[in-house]
Amino acid sequence: MSVDQTGEERTDTTMEATNLIHRVDKITGHWQPEHLMTVDSSHTLKLAKIQGTFIWHCHPATDEVFYCVSGGPMRLELSTNATSPEHAEEIGADQTVELRVGDIFKVPRGVQHRPIADVETGIMMIEKVGTVNTGDREGHELTTELKGSEV
Amino acid sequence: MSVDQTGEERTDTTMEATNLIHRVDKITGHWQPEHLMTVDSSHTLKLAKIQGTFIWHCHPATDEVFYCVSGGPMRLELSTNATSPEHAEEIGADQTVELRVGDIFKVPRGVQHRPIADVETGIMMIEKVGTVNTGDREGHELTTELKGSEV
Asked: Does A45 sit within 8 Å of B43, measured CB to CB?
């Protein structure tokens, strides 16, 4: 990538594209996001495999983009009037967004949501660095560390 | 999306996913990015169709993610030691990254680059809000306004 003082070429980064389908295929386990890349130190692209129904939660400080890479269809249930996960649990979803392979959707910050996938689905997410998968339910048994270095 | 004081449901946003292939297919013209969505008021997802060879340029203040949606393959030529577009033109590429459909790659901020597509290719880009397509060559005949509202 650059030439150091000895005149030898240093390769600081792998200058290769990543195929999302191949990369997400390697993931084992569900609901355990892996780091793909960081953009401008502020946002992270993550990959995960999901299956089943996740818990209601929201991210008060970040939008969260979902992109369906493989498998699917999956659904994003939104409870746009809910003020907490418990409230969402009580009043349920008022919007359901279906994502098939190639579909993208942004859950706005602060909106209670839960992903559901009847079959195993590979997804990419875009959100702020440091975002925890279970949002305002940090500490839940499904809360997990991001796999791979974030920055 | 929410209930107003008359008790009627207001739909503020279309709660539907966007299919990247269908959306990029609607674009006419090359090298003219269209707004897809904004994430956290800081980053924009854009779609474009490209064909041919773009000009050397860099974005001093933002990383730029390229994702190949349709068509392809395309190439990103990088001139990682170049200090200006003119310098890149002179010394040429020292890295070439090929992207086929489903491939993603980040051009780090400040790196001189130019996309090349022998056949018409649909791409998604992720970069900071306000990023100009020709980067540090703003004012070039290929410089264009982003189509669609950014925020």
From this structure: no
